[in-house]
Amino acid sequence: MHYSQIDTSKALPIMEQFYTIQGEGFHSGRAAYFIRIAGCDVGCVWCDVKESWDSSLHPLVQISDLVKAVQENNADFVVITGGEPAMYDLTTLVNELKANNIEIAIETSGCYELVGNVDWYCFSPKKFKAPSAEAYSKASELKVVIFHPSDFAWAETHADKVNPDCVLYLQPEWSKQDKILPQIIEYVKSNKKWRISLQTHKFMQIP
In CATH, what number is assigned to the domain containing residue 144? Predict the structure, then answer.
C-alpha cells in the first residue's frame, strides 16, 4: 500500500518501536520511546536504516496500540522518527499522545510540511531533497550530518535561514567519524554558535 493510501487517523506503518535513551542532539541522554515510521523518499546514501524506506514492507500498527505501548513503558517522551515521518498526517498520533501528557519530538528532513503539533522539531536537512520553507521557521534544533568537509559550508546555508531560537548542531556521519570529528571540533571552536552532536547510543551499544 502506498503511503498516501493509509488512513493515518487509525494506523501507521511502523518499522520498529522501542524504549531507549535518545542518543543525539538536544535531548541526548534522555529516556525516550522511539516510534520509527516506515516510508522515505529522500534517499540518503549513508542512511543507516535503509530498510525503513519501503513502507509496504512493514506492518500497519493501530495508533491506540502505539499509545498503549508508550504507557506500558511509563515513558513521558516520544521521538517520532523514520524513514521520513512528516510524509504522513500525524494529527491523531500526536493528539492521542498529548492527551496522555506525553512530550513529543520529531526528527525530520523537513522535506514535507508537518501535520501535527509536536513539542520539539529536530530539522536534519539532506542534500538529496530540498526542505520546505516551513522547516526553517519550525526548527527547534538544526542537526546537520557532516559527511565531507564541504558540508560545513552547506550547514551554514541552513543556519542562516532558521529562526533565532534554533539550537545548531554538527554531527559526524558514523562511518566517517574518525576522520571528520577532529575537523568538527576545530570548526566549532572557531564558530561558537554550533554545538557537536554525537551518536552516543552507538557508543552505549543500545538501539
Answer: 3.20.20.70
